[in-house]
Amino acid sequence: MKYKPIRDIKLKNKMNTNEVIKELQNSGGFTSKKLAAGVDILENMINEKKCIRFLSFPACIISTGTRGIIKDLLKKKLFDVVITTCGTLDHDLARIWEDYYNGSFITDDIELHKKGINRLGNIFIPNQCYGKILEEKIQPILSYLYVNSNKWSTKDLIWAFGKHLEKEKKREQSIIYWAWKNKIPIYVPGITDGAFGSQIWMHYQQHRDLTIDLLKDEQELSDITFNAKKSGALIIGGGISKHHTIWWNQFKGGLDYAVYITTAAEYDGSLSGAQTHEAISWGKIKEKADNVTINGDATVILPFMISALFERLAPK
User: Fold this and answer.
1) CATH number, domain with residue 303
2) Annotated catalytic sites, by residue?
């Protein structure tokens, strides 16, 4: 067996992100080498024409500027399917109409509560920028949509909201808008677990025939995976969105490409901390799949990985 020697990282003036990432490939860096491998896998996945590409992420990163990276991935049509959590809809919509603010992890949460400010990590979200504005804006949209139909899948409802955003000044900052614009389905299996879901429930109080058809979502995911010749996924974080992505892909023999980014540890048996090799044992990732698990904060890792990826995919 031949081993590659460790090479020192050589940084030069005016290096672009991709050039820096390439320096990590033979550096022997513990996580940095995985980061470089992740960019390679994403590049191969996107260049594979027969591959259906899944993007999975939790809501928390959408409260941060990382939302802009997710938006650009959909704007550039680099992924075919999105699976996420209800809070993604909350934060994406709320930030169209109001601002979130830089805060701190170290603060007096009792004082924040008295002032009507919600803390998400080091993000400060005043009540008027979240629950209040969402109720004010979402209820009229739901009433408008209800006139045409009382039964919606999560994908169809999200696309309907995306179309409704056409007249908003900040529409092009929205994940939901670009998903509708580019006809990229967003599925939210835990649709009631957030403010958007609560607004649906509130609407239901006056319209008892309102139905969210989750099984239509599942049928579409079934059709997508069973018809895919190959599939790959960028999976950020864990929870229901991660599991739903790998769950459906097991029925086609597993993902051909997989990049995990997670801060969770695997010692407690959690799905969020489970590495790609655990998914191989379930058949959710193929035995010979191109895969890597990168441990770290996605708000740090994604800007570098996706910047390098964009540079590689740019026309020569």
Assistant:
1) 3.40.910.10
2) 284
